[in-house]
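seq:
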Amino acid sequence: MKSNCQLLIIGAGAAGIGAAHAAKRAGIDYLVVEASHRVGGRGLTEELAPGIPWDLGCHWLHSGGINPLAPVADELGIHYDKELPSRGFYMNNQRLPETRVAEYDKYCLDIWNNVKQSEANGEDIALSELIDLNSEWAPYYTYWESLMTSEDVDQFSALDLARYEDTDENWPVRDGYGTLLSRHAESIHVELNTAVKCIDWSGAGVSVETNRGTIHAEHVVITVSTSVLGSRDIEFKPALPLSTQEAIEALPLGCYNNFAMLYEEEWPFDPDTPDRIDYSNGDDINFAFKLRCSGWPYIYCAVAGRQARWLERQPAEESKNLMMTALTDIFGSDFKKKIVKFRSSAWGDDPLVKGAFSASKPGQANQRKVLGVPVGERLFFAGEAASEKAFCTAHGAWQSGADAVMKSIKM
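struct:
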């Protein structure tokens, strides 16, 4: 491992990979260091069964039509799905008629109109303040919004949500988002198992102490998560400016975990069963199921916020039982016999991440911009938390890494 470079990039997740490619294009002498044994960060694909990829983290090319990683996937031959799945909404064991689904859709639209009006009024409040929480639709809606931010609706800013650039094109990566990121990283220089302990920016350049020695660089792009930064796992000498510290504190990672149930038959459902099912028992059990994820024989769903945190602390069987409660409500008790494997992620327990993605606290929507402000013309923070319009996404992280490199060139 070299001890001197023009640009040091800390972290080989989507932001670090984006930064490295930008540095490579610009002809900058760079080095990427990664504390883990792998690249990809919160993008991780494993096999649920031989030949069946499953994403533990990032899964969709969000806003696919403007997603900069979509053409990367095309170039690498990574497959993704553009086709919209058929959809059904179940309340307990009853599929709702289209007239009732339209009522739910109107409920969602009314809330979105409240969000845009709140934005126009210059308000920065929790989304929960703009929702009719007494509605029969509230349990499912609040569950769904927690998936968007990895936090509950009382814990994140509606103004932040209003700024997200959404084209309503969310394309699942059939071959795995983690596969996409790892393949994209094959052409960059990454030193794995290299954990940063201290970043000293007191001098003209920056000295970075790692478990494998000290690296000297002119500029440093820091892509580790806000929860890792907030836990002080990396020491800064001198301490970061108060404005940067406040931005880090205002953008903590929430909790979000994926579940998967492998089934033994190619399609163990009635022929007219929709590919996607929205389910609610009207209270505390709510799921968005994908019954045939990108054509693979497994059921995918996720949980976020407080529920995800609680389930992480329980045995995996608790998550499986909760998911099965909903599925047997829909398909009957015999459905249990069709399931051959259950898997779940646990990002809150990952010491190198400590959560899922960033949720801006109410009143703190402007902190993403603050986080992106260079420190001492030498330190540049990147990652999905620093993205003002594509936060909570891998492509937002990737673009922020590339943008940080461009900022460093101007310094």
